[in-house]
Amino acid sequence: MGDKIKRIFLDVLQFYTINLTKLPDHDHVSAVFQDCLSITTDILSSNQSDEVGGAKGSAALFECGVLRDLLWERLNIGHWKDVAEVYRVMYRVARLMEAILTMTSCDTMATPSCDTMATPSCDTMATPSCDTMATTSCDTMATTSCDTMATPSCVTMATTLSDVTKATPSDVTKATPSDVTKAALLHCDMGLIMGAPLQNEQFTQEIADLLQKDLSRNNTRHLVVEIPPIPNPVPSFQNLNDIVTVPIHHQPSMEGFVQLVQVGKPFVMRGVIDHWIALSKWTPQYFVDRFGDRTVPVEVGSSYTSANWTQKLMTMEMFVKEHVCSADNSVGYLAQFDLFHHIPSLRNDIAPLDYISLFSENSVDQCWFGPAGTVSPLHHDRYHNLFCQIHGHKRFIMFGRVEAMAAHESTLLSNTSQLDVESDFIKEQAWYVEVGPGDVLYIPLHWWHHVRSLSVSFSVSQWWKESMK
Question: Rounded distance, CA 469 to CA 108, Å?
Fold first, then answer.
């Protein structure tokens, strides 16, 4: 391992040693965590190669695996929102230490370039705050709380996703450099999915990006994305009593946008995101080639209200191969997951919409990626939404802020209707629109909306909550 990247790893571990001090008292997990942090730091500080890749390194890797299992138990006890955030932080650090030790365990592994990775500095780190957008608190907009979105993923994440306990090859001496890099990357991804950052740092994301770039440079995959034709049902909508077509506006001014929002009804804008790089860049093939080895949680099932709905961990390549390229009826959806936190470089391909700044200083971005046939059942959100269509087409059927929508009685699904928009009779006025690449749909606060993907689709939601400033 090169001295430069080793130095960065040591600086990262030092940052955690200095700043992660408020650990639960009289807790065996805290003691094991501190031991692992100390041992891993000592190994990286040593100039003896036998300590890094030999018995001491293997023992440290085993100890970190024990720590990870102990923390996994903490994450799965009780309600997800009640899990102490410090355990999620410790889990992320534990997986990061496993990734580092895995990378150091194989002398033949190609060392990823670290020129683009920032050296951690305690002076520049932002102080954690529940008011910031980077926080992982279930009470804020940045979370995947079922109260803020359509699906109960925040509640079920810890219980429906199986932890990958054997990320590191059992015999690293026989593993190829690619095997070791993939194992280290999996540790990083699991830390990102189930863990939490300390003081808004993004060390795990940066290391994961370096590992994926290393794998992409030595890419041997031969998956060519071919999208099969999948017919979508074309309902007659005879079950809807009154249908209104959503109006379209071309590049409204800031003042014009405020006036449209104050009317309180949906509208589509065109010509406002034509400069986004994502419009020409985000294709299934690009995500396979650039992020194919990244592990993400995928929703599997016709919709999150279905009895067969579940979540599975899989690589981006596997998701595209099994659900996007597949001609069968296995619906998979990359949704209700903060992909921008997982892969921050994706933010470089979009930009905040200036319109939101007229109403709020903060907004939350959410990415949606799935094949034709994905359905979000009729539901409403507690936030205004600028829904930006990047790739493919989606159909929206929307209803105003009415109470008579047969919402589920359970708190978990209280924002979701039991009505099937495509078959049940609904007397309320319905607003209809199909959006394509470059379209931006405004969905007012608490408006009910049903969404169906008409093709492979990438979308980005930009949510905001506060009233006009």
Answer: 57
Q: Express each pLDDT in 374-395 by its tens digit.
A: 889 999 998 999 999 999 999 9
For the chain, the residue count is 469
Per-residue pLDDT averaged across 408-430, rounded?
81
- Torsion on CA atoms 6, 8, 13, 15, rounded to nearest 10: 160
Task: Looking at 1-130, list the stretches that DSSP marks H as alpha helix, in order from N- to C-terminal side.
Answer: 3-19, 28-45, 49-53, 55-75, 85-104
Q: Which residues contact 234 (CB under 8 A, 6 or more apart)?
A: none
Phi and psi of 118, rounded to 5°?
A: -75, 135
For residue 209, give the nearest of 194, 232, 188 by alpha carbon: 188
CA dist 235 and 421 (Å) reads 10
pLDDT digits (tens, 9 = 90+) for 212-268: 998 888 776 667 777 776 666 666 788 888 899 999 999 999 999 999 999 999 999
What is the percentage of the chain residues whose pLDDT exceeds 90?
53
CA distance linking residue 307 with residue 293, whole number of Å: 30
Nearest partner of 58 among 118, 3, 20, 105, judged by Cα = 105
Strands (E), 109-156: none
Contacts of 9 by beta carbon, 8 Å cutoff, 6+ apart: 44, 100
And the tokens for 100? 């580092």
CA 375 to chain centre: 19
